[in-house]
TrEMBL record:
It comes from Digitaria exilis. This is Glutamine synthetase. It is found in: Cytoplasm. Gene3D superfamilies: Glutamine synthetase, N-terminal domain, Glutamine synthetase/guanido kinase, catalytic domain. One of its GO terms (biological process) is glutamine biosynthetic process.
Protein backbone atom coordinates (compact mmCIF):
# COMPACT_ATOMS: atom_id res chain seq x y z
CA UNK A 1 0.00 0.00 0.00
CA UNK A 2 1.37 3.44 -0.97
CA UNK A 3 2.03 5.90 1.82
CA UNK A 4 0.65 9.44 1.66
CA UNK A 5 4.18 10.77 1.05
CA UNK A 6 4.57 8.40 -1.91
CA UNK A 7 1.41 9.79 -3.50
CA UNK A 8 2.36 13.42 -2.82
CA UNK A 9 5.72 12.76 -4.50
CA UNK A 10 4.32 11.03 -7.60
CA UNK A 11 6.15 12.14 -10.74
CA UNK A 12 3.37 13.07 -13.19
CA UNK A 13 5.74 13.18 -16.17
CA UNK A 14 6.07 9.38 -15.95
CA UNK A 15 2.49 8.98 -17.17
CA UNK A 16 1.15 12.25 -18.58
CA UNK A 17 2.07 15.53 -20.31
CA UNK A 18 -0.41 17.35 -18.06
CA UNK A 19 0.85 19.72 -15.37
CA UNK A 20 -0.62 21.42 -12.30
CA UNK A 21 -0.59 25.23 -12.12
CA UNK A 22 -1.13 26.82 -8.70
CA UNK A 23 -2.66 30.28 -9.26
CA UNK A 24 -1.71 32.70 -6.44
CA UNK A 25 -3.31 36.05 -5.61
CA UNK A 26 -3.50 38.61 -2.81
CA UNK A 27 -6.75 38.66 -0.83
CA UNK A 28 -8.86 41.46 0.59
CA UNK A 29 -6.68 42.36 3.60
CA UNK A 30 -3.76 43.14 1.29
CA UNK A 31 -1.58 40.61 3.15
CA UNK A 32 -3.53 37.33 2.93
CA UNK A 33 -2.29 35.11 0.12
CA UNK A 34 -4.79 32.78 -1.56
CA UNK A 35 -4.27 30.06 -4.15
CA UNK A 36 -5.99 27.29 -6.06
CA UNK A 37 -4.82 24.76 -8.62
CA UNK A 38 -5.85 23.73 -12.11
CA UNK A 39 -4.71 21.14 -14.64
CA UNK A 40 -3.10 22.29 -17.90
CA UNK A 41 -2.55 20.13 -20.98
CA UNK A 42 1.24 20.61 -21.01
CA UNK A 43 4.21 22.67 -19.77
CA UNK A 44 3.94 26.48 -19.98
CA UNK A 45 6.78 29.01 -19.53
CA UNK A 46 5.11 32.23 -20.77
CA UNK A 47 2.43 33.77 -18.50
CA UNK A 48 0.62 35.25 -21.55
CA UNK A 49 -0.02 31.67 -22.73
CA UNK A 50 -1.84 30.77 -19.52
CA UNK A 51 -5.64 30.98 -19.32
CA UNK A 52 -7.26 33.64 -17.16
CA UNK A 53 -9.29 32.21 -14.29
CA UNK A 54 -11.79 33.45 -11.71
CA UNK A 55 -12.68 33.09 -8.04
CA UNK A 56 -15.38 34.06 -5.56
CA UNK A 57 -14.38 37.54 -4.43
CA UNK A 58 -17.17 37.66 -1.84
CA UNK A 59 -15.23 35.00 0.13
CA UNK A 60 -12.01 37.05 0.16
CA UNK A 61 -13.50 40.49 0.96
CA UNK A 62 -13.00 41.71 -2.62
CA UNK A 63 -16.49 41.64 -4.17
CA UNK A 64 -20.16 41.70 -3.10
CA UNK A 65 -22.10 38.41 -3.02
CA UNK A 66 -24.47 39.47 -5.79
CA UNK A 67 -21.59 40.16 -8.21
CA UNK A 68 -18.78 38.06 -6.77
CA UNK A 69 -16.66 37.05 -9.76
CA UNK A 70 -13.07 38.33 -9.80
CA UNK A 71 -10.80 37.50 -12.75
CA UNK A 72 -7.20 36.31 -12.29
CA UNK A 73 -4.66 37.51 -14.87
CA UNK A 74 -1.46 35.39 -14.82
CA UNK A 75 1.61 37.66 -14.58
CA UNK A 76 4.67 35.60 -13.55
CA UNK A 77 5.59 31.91 -13.54
CA UNK A 78 7.82 30.08 -11.03
CA UNK A 79 8.73 26.41 -10.71
CA UNK A 80 6.66 24.65 -8.02
CA UNK A 81 8.99 23.40 -5.25
CA UNK A 82 6.17 21.41 -3.64
CA UNK A 83 4.91 19.40 -6.64
CA UNK A 84 8.20 19.67 -8.57
CA UNK A 85 8.45 18.34 -12.15
CA UNK A 86 6.97 20.69 -14.76
CA UNK A 87 4.36 21.99 -12.30
CA UNK A 88 4.28 25.75 -11.71
CA UNK A 89 3.33 28.54 -9.34
CA UNK A 90 1.59 31.45 -11.08
CA UNK A 91 1.52 34.94 -9.55
CA UNK A 92 -1.67 36.68 -10.65
CA UNK A 93 -3.35 40.04 -10.20
CA UNK A 94 -7.08 40.67 -9.96
CA UNK A 95 -9.65 42.40 -12.20
CA UNK A 96 -13.39 42.85 -12.57
CA UNK A 97 -15.09 40.95 -15.43
CA UNK A 98 -15.01 44.29 -17.33
CA UNK A 99 -11.20 44.31 -17.12
CA UNK A 100 -10.78 47.01 -14.45
CA UNK A 101 -8.19 46.37 -11.70
CA UNK A 102 -9.96 45.84 -8.36
CA UNK A 103 -8.98 48.23 -5.50
CA UNK A 104 -6.63 45.71 -3.84
CA UNK A 105 -4.70 45.15 -7.09
CA UNK A 106 -1.57 47.19 -6.34
CA UNK A 107 0.44 45.47 -9.09
CA UNK A 108 -1.47 47.23 -11.88
CA UNK A 109 -0.34 50.75 -10.94
CA UNK A 110 3.19 49.56 -10.13
CA UNK A 111 3.50 47.96 -13.59
CA UNK A 112 2.37 51.26 -15.18
CA UNK A 113 5.10 53.17 -13.31
CA UNK A 114 7.80 50.63 -14.17
CA UNK A 115 6.85 50.52 -17.85
CA UNK A 116 6.94 54.31 -18.26
CA UNK A 117 9.91 55.25 -20.53
CA UNK A 118 11.46 57.53 -17.89
CA UNK A 119 11.59 54.77 -15.26
CA UNK A 120 12.43 51.91 -17.64
CA UNK A 121 15.46 53.85 -18.94
CA UNK A 122 16.87 54.00 -15.39
CA UNK A 123 16.58 50.21 -14.82
CA UNK A 124 15.70 50.42 -11.10
CA UNK A 125 17.26 47.59 -9.06
CA UNK A 126 15.89 46.45 -5.72
CA UNK A 127 17.13 44.26 -2.89
CA UNK A 128 14.43 43.67 -0.27
CA UNK A 129 15.26 42.41 3.23
CA UNK A 130 12.10 40.62 4.41
CA UNK A 131 11.98 40.09 8.17
CA UNK A 132 9.39 37.81 9.78
CA UNK A 133 8.67 36.06 13.08
CA UNK A 134 7.85 32.39 13.61
CA UNK A 135 5.13 31.70 16.19
CA UNK A 136 3.99 28.59 18.05
CA UNK A 137 0.67 27.63 16.44
CA UNK A 138 -1.49 27.23 19.55
CA UNK A 139 -0.13 30.07 21.68
CA UNK A 140 0.87 32.61 18.97
CA UNK A 141 4.04 33.15 21.03
CA UNK A 142 7.44 33.25 19.28
CA UNK A 143 9.13 29.96 18.48
CA UNK A 144 11.66 29.00 21.16
CA UNK A 145 10.17 31.29 23.82
CA UNK A 146 8.92 29.75 27.07
CA UNK A 147 5.11 29.69 26.99
CA UNK A 148 3.82 32.76 28.84
CA UNK A 149 7.39 33.85 29.56
CA UNK A 150 10.37 35.56 28.00
CA UNK A 151 13.84 34.47 26.90
CA UNK A 152 17.00 36.28 27.98
CA UNK A 153 17.50 39.80 26.60
CA UNK A 154 18.58 40.47 23.01
CA UNK A 155 22.23 40.13 22.13
CA UNK A 156 23.00 36.41 21.67
CA UNK A 157 20.44 35.68 18.95
CA UNK A 158 21.45 37.66 15.84
CA UNK A 159 23.05 35.28 13.28
CA UNK A 160 23.38 32.79 16.15
CA UNK A 161 23.76 29.02 16.29
CA UNK A 162 22.77 26.59 19.01
CA UNK A 163 19.55 25.07 20.31
CA UNK A 164 19.23 27.71 23.05
CA UNK A 165 19.59 30.66 20.66
CA UNK A 166 18.41 29.73 17.15
CA UNK A 167 14.83 28.55 16.62
CA UNK A 168 13.30 27.37 13.31
CA UNK A 169 16.39 26.89 11.15
CA UNK A 170 14.87 23.84 9.39
CA UNK A 171 12.00 26.04 8.18
CA UNK A 172 14.36 28.82 7.11
CA UNK A 173 16.72 26.54 5.16
CA UNK A 174 13.78 24.72 3.52
CA UNK A 175 12.44 28.08 2.41
CA UNK A 176 15.84 29.22 1.11
CA UNK A 177 16.26 26.14 -1.10
CA UNK A 178 12.61 26.15 -2.22
CA UNK A 179 12.94 29.77 -3.38
CA UNK A 180 16.12 28.99 -5.33
CA UNK A 181 14.37 25.99 -6.89
CA UNK A 182 11.38 28.16 -7.84
CA UNK A 183 13.60 30.67 -9.68
CA UNK A 184 13.33 33.46 -7.10
CA UNK A 185 16.53 35.52 -6.85
CA UNK A 186 16.82 34.98 -3.09
CA UNK A 187 20.27 36.21 -2.12
CA UNK A 188 20.58 35.17 1.52
CA UNK A 189 19.07 34.47 4.94
CA UNK A 190 20.01 35.23 8.54
CA UNK A 191 18.73 34.95 12.09
CA UNK A 192 17.57 38.28 13.48
CA UNK A 193 18.03 40.21 16.74
CA UNK A 194 14.84 38.97 18.41
CA UNK A 195 14.78 35.18 19.01
CA UNK A 196 12.33 33.44 16.66
CA UNK A 197 12.76 36.23 14.09
CA UNK A 198 14.48 35.68 10.72
CA UNK A 199 15.17 37.49 7.49
CA UNK A 200 15.52 36.57 3.83
CA UNK A 201 16.73 38.87 1.08
CA UNK A 202 15.37 38.99 -2.48
CA UNK A 203 17.37 40.72 -5.18
CA UNK A 204 18.87 42.31 -7.03
CA UNK A 205 15.70 42.30 -9.10
CA UNK A 206 14.56 44.81 -11.68
CA UNK A 207 11.30 46.75 -11.65
CA UNK A 208 8.03 44.85 -11.26
CA UNK A 209 9.81 41.51 -10.81
CA UNK A 210 10.91 42.61 -7.31
CA UNK A 211 7.28 42.63 -6.15
CA UNK A 212 6.43 39.35 -7.89
CA UNK A 213 9.40 37.60 -6.32
CA UNK A 214 8.81 38.86 -2.76
CA UNK A 215 5.13 37.87 -2.88
CA UNK A 216 5.90 34.36 -4.16
CA UNK A 217 8.70 34.00 -1.58
CA UNK A 218 6.14 34.91 1.11
CA UNK A 219 3.71 32.37 -0.37
CA UNK A 220 6.35 29.60 -0.27
CA UNK A 221 7.21 30.52 3.34
CA UNK A 222 3.57 30.29 4.43
CA UNK A 223 3.22 26.91 2.71
CA UNK A 224 6.33 25.59 4.47
CA UNK A 225 5.21 26.86 7.89
CA UNK A 226 1.83 25.22 7.23
CA UNK A 227 3.63 21.87 6.75
CA UNK A 228 5.74 22.48 9.88
CA UNK A 229 2.73 23.39 12.04
CA UNK A 230 4.16 26.84 12.77
CA UNK A 231 2.64 30.29 12.12
CA UNK A 232 4.56 33.06 10.33
CA UNK A 233 3.70 36.67 11.11
CA UNK A 234 4.78 39.79 9.22
CA UNK A 235 3.60 42.08 12.03
CA UNK A 236 6.11 44.95 12.34
CA UNK A 237 6.19 44.74 16.15
CA UNK A 238 4.95 41.29 17.20
CA UNK A 239 6.15 41.62 20.83
CA UNK A 240 5.85 45.00 22.61
CA UNK A 241 8.70 46.24 24.76
CA UNK A 242 12.47 45.93 24.49
CA UNK A 243 12.42 43.66 21.43
CA UNK A 244 13.30 44.52 17.84
CA UNK A 245 10.47 44.97 15.37
CA UNK A 246 10.36 43.52 11.86
CA UNK A 247 10.97 45.57 8.72
CA UNK A 248 11.45 45.19 4.99
CA UNK A 249 14.46 47.40 4.31
CA UNK A 250 14.48 48.25 0.62
CA UNK A 251 17.82 48.70 -1.14
CA UNK A 252 17.55 50.70 -4.34
CA UNK A 253 19.62 52.03 -7.20
CA UNK A 254 19.10 53.41 -10.69
CA UNK A 255 21.47 53.31 -13.66
CA UNK A 256 22.46 56.95 -12.94
CA UNK A 257 23.28 56.05 -9.32
CA UNK A 258 25.39 53.06 -10.36
CA UNK A 259 27.41 55.10 -12.89
CA UNK A 260 30.25 57.52 -12.15
CA UNK A 261 28.96 60.59 -10.34
CA UNK A 262 26.08 58.55 -8.94
CA UNK A 263 26.55 59.74 -5.35
CA UNK A 264 25.20 63.18 -6.27
CA UNK A 265 22.17 61.49 -7.88
CA UNK A 266 21.69 59.47 -4.67
CA UNK A 267 21.77 62.61 -2.50
CA UNK A 268 19.25 64.31 -4.78
CA UNK A 269 16.96 61.25 -4.62
CA UNK A 270 17.18 61.18 -0.80
CA UNK A 271 16.22 64.87 -0.71
CA UNK A 272 13.09 64.03 -2.74
CA UNK A 273 12.25 61.18 -0.34
CA UNK A 274 12.55 63.65 2.56
CA UNK A 275 10.03 66.00 0.93
CA UNK A 276 7.51 63.14 0.55
CA UNK A 277 8.23 61.46 3.89
CA UNK A 278 4.60 61.49 5.10
CA UNK A 279 3.23 60.03 1.87
CA UNK A 280 5.78 57.23 1.94
CA UNK A 281 5.19 56.41 5.62
CA UNK A 282 1.44 56.18 4.92
CA UNK A 283 2.14 53.55 2.25
CA UNK A 284 4.90 51.61 4.02
CA UNK A 285 2.82 49.14 6.05
CA UNK A 286 0.17 48.90 8.79
CA UNK A 287 1.25 49.31 12.42
CA UNK A 288 4.63 50.79 11.49
CA UNK A 289 4.26 53.42 14.21
CA UNK A 290 4.79 50.62 16.77
CA UNK A 291 8.15 49.83 15.13
CA UNK A 292 9.56 53.23 14.05
CA UNK A 293 10.17 54.65 17.52
CA UNK A 294 13.76 55.83 17.23
CA UNK A 295 14.89 52.75 19.17
CA UNK A 296 15.90 49.22 18.11
CA UNK A 297 17.74 50.32 14.94
CA UNK A 298 14.95 52.57 13.65
CA UNK A 299 14.40 56.28 13.05
CA UNK A 300 11.40 58.03 14.60
CA UNK A 301 8.36 57.78 12.31
CA UNK A 302 7.76 61.55 12.28
CA UNK A 303 11.32 62.59 11.44
CA UNK A 304 13.22 61.96 8.21
CA UNK A 305 16.97 61.47 8.50
CA UNK A 306 19.76 59.92 6.47
CA UNK A 307 23.39 59.06 7.06
CA UNK A 308 26.33 56.96 5.96
CA UNK A 309 26.44 53.56 7.71
CA UNK A 310 23.77 54.79 10.17
CA UNK A 311 21.24 52.09 11.07
CA UNK A 312 19.27 54.56 13.18
CA UNK A 313 18.40 56.71 10.14
CA UNK A 314 15.38 56.62 7.81
CA UNK A 315 17.73 56.10 4.85
CA UNK A 316 21.20 54.56 5.10
CA UNK A 317 23.97 55.00 2.54
CA UNK A 318 26.69 52.35 2.63
CA UNK A 319 30.27 53.31 3.40
CA UNK A 320 31.36 51.69 0.11
CA UNK A 321 28.91 53.82 -1.89
CA UNK A 322 30.33 56.98 -0.31
CA UNK A 323 33.91 55.87 -1.04
CA UNK A 324 33.17 54.81 -4.66
CA UNK A 325 31.07 57.89 -5.41
CA UNK A 326 28.31 55.65 -6.79
CA UNK A 327 26.14 52.70 -5.78
CA UNK A 328 22.85 52.36 -3.91
CA UNK A 329 20.98 53.35 -0.75
CA UNK A 330 18.70 51.60 1.73
CA UNK A 331 15.25 52.87 2.70
CA UNK A 332 14.86 51.47 6.24
CA UNK A 333 11.31 52.72 6.80
CA UNK A 334 9.13 50.00 5.18
CA UNK A 335 7.46 47.61 7.64
CA UNK A 336 7.67 43.84 7.26
CA UNK A 337 4.01 43.78 6.13
CA UNK A 338 4.51 46.35 3.36
CA UNK A 339 3.28 45.64 -0.17
CA UNK A 340 6.43 45.36 -2.32
CA UNK A 341 4.49 46.50 -5.42
CA UNK A 342 3.58 49.74 -3.62
CA UNK A 343 6.97 50.40 -2.01
CA UNK A 344 9.18 49.66 -5.03
CA UNK A 345 7.06 51.65 -7.48
CA UNK A 346 6.63 54.56 -5.08
CA UNK A 347 10.40 54.88 -4.56
CA UNK A 348 10.90 54.84 -8.34
CA UNK A 349 8.11 57.36 -8.91
CA UNK A 350 9.38 59.77 -6.24
CA UNK A 351 13.06 59.60 -7.20
CA UNK A 352 12.76 59.44 -11.01
CA UNK A 353 9.44 60.92 -12.12
CA UNK A 354 8.32 63.36 -9.39
CA UNK A 355 9.35 66.99 -9.76
CA UNK A 356 9.20 68.92 -6.46
Amino acid sequence: MACLTDLINLNLSDTTEKIIAEYIWIGGSGMDLRSKARTLSGPVTDPSKLPKWNYDGSSTGQAPGEDSEVILYPQAIFKDPFRKGNNILVMCDCYTPAGEPIPTNKRYNAAKIFSSPEVAAEEPWYGIEQEYTLLQKDTKWPLGWPVGGFPGPQGPYYCSIGADKSFGRDIVDSHYKACLYAGINISGINGEVMPGQWEFQVGPSVGISAGDQVWVARYILERITEIAGVVVTFDPKPIPGDWNGAGAHTNYSTKSMRNDGGYEVIKSAIEKLKLRHKEHIAAYGEGNERRLTGRHETADINTFSWGVANRGASVRVGRETEQNGKGYFEDRRPASNMDPYVVTSMIAETTIVWKP
